[in-house]
């Protein structure tokens, strides 16, 4: 099936822009299915518009692989509102390639590339998984998604969560909000269930992406403070099984150290006790 595209219907002038729209519009657009091309045009007031709303055009657009190839920027305006601004004169039926302005990139915490990522001419390499890309923005998005394959739904959902956190915005529908509950186990189960996506499991608190539900479940406990695991020796509470196992090993090593100290004391001060014990 042919991929949905965002196109300029009659051509657009550099500098034209959309009206400002709230993050709520983008959240709603991410969850609405699009099966046909979206066309950008100017209304009677020279504002950039699109059928279905400009937010729908944003989350449907291709991301520009590099800034010089971007034909439009998504900008963060005052009042935590968003705006699309056209960067270059675009001919009719030209596909929009979208990127983000510097302010929005900072709020998204989009990764920076360093010299270790530039491994050759037109070669950009992930320092975590060694995947190679021809353009820098593709690697930035790859790092933003924690080395998971690109999925528009997951990408925009994470963008929304990042912006909600950075701008102190109450989560908006249709992204689920976690209910106030006295049961941390129920809260953990809800967050893990609602974080399911086509390409992994996403944290509703911070947007971090995990390949396995178990990894997300353990991560959620860092936000909720839920610690259902107990040390059998001292009853100290833990949320992460690996941390509990490390703690238990400390008990074992401490017990061995105490046993060695006791044997050393007996050899020095009570050798007869050791002899009597060996005779029995």
TrEMBL record:
<keyword id="KW-0863">Zinc-finger</keyword>
<protein>
    <submittedName>
        <fullName>Uncharacterized protein</fullName>
    </submittedName>
</protein>
<dbReference type="GO" id="GO:0008270">
    <property type="term" value="F:zinc ion binding"/>
</dbReference>
<keyword id="KW-0479">Metal-binding</keyword>
<keyword id="KW-0539">Nucleus</keyword>
<keyword id="KW-0677">Repeat</keyword>
<dbReference type="Pfam" id="PF00096">
    <property type="entry name" value="zf-C2H2"/>
</dbReference>
<keyword id="KW-0862">Zinc</keyword>
<dbReference type="GO" id="GO:0000981">
    <property type="term" value="F:DNA-binding transcription factor activity, RNA polymerase II-specific"/>
</dbReference>
<dbReference type="InterPro" id="IPR013087">
    <property type="entry name" value="Znf_C2H2_type"/>
</dbReference>
<dbReference type="InterPro" id="IPR036236">
    <property type="entry name" value="Znf_C2H2_sf"/>
</dbReference>
<dbReference type="GO" id="GO:0005634">
    <property type="term" value="C:nucleus"/>
</dbReference>
